[in-house]
# Entry
Amino acid sequence: MSTILGIIPARYASTRFPGKPLIDLAGQTMIQRVYAQCKAATFLTDVIVATDDERIAEHLKAHDIPYVMTSTEHPSGTDRCYEAYHNLGKDYDFVINIQGDEPFICPTTIDRLANLCQDPTTELATLVKPLTEYADLVAPTTAKVALGVDGHALLFSRLPIPMLRNVPDQADWLKHHQYYKHIGIYAYRTDLLAAITQLPVGVLERAESLEQLRWLEHGYRIRTAITTDDSHGIDTPEDVARILARFAH
# Structure
């Protein structure tokens, strides 16, 4: 059985929503809720929060949530996860990066990704969901992924991939091909984690602003599993009312 460390990156500064890890969601902060969902997963050996802010650290300390302090300068959650893993000073086979703004993430979703970590040949892994809505297909905020027959990701894009050349009306594409959207949770084999944080930004990542393209460009393989669960992240203050409505139901 692989040992897996779940890391929840939680930074205070955010262009669209500063301090969102500490917002109240029906009596608990968002970071408390994400941590509780992670702890309910079956296959995570340990769970920690990686933060860059003393206000978040004090809150975590008050609620007995383990955490590691990290730099404020990291360009991505992957970089923050590597520093947290390095600073923790314990060995694990894999690290799973769990978004800190997903208070409804299902423990079974985490376990589905953790199952891919039971194969030591897995380098990197993530989840995909069958795409069923045309609005998601064409939305540049929704990353799409093309899969190989072995379940590894071939390419990610903000555009629909593949283009159906023989179906001229894009509105009909979903009737003729199974598209997948990317669910942003990652697993990294720990012996590769340091290496991928040192990779230079490639032309595909620069074009699409999707960091996983950097790994593909440099020859790493990203294994995927299909989930029916969707993401329900909080990106802006306006999202809070939507999330609270879910708690009400």
Notes: The chain has one domain: 4-248.
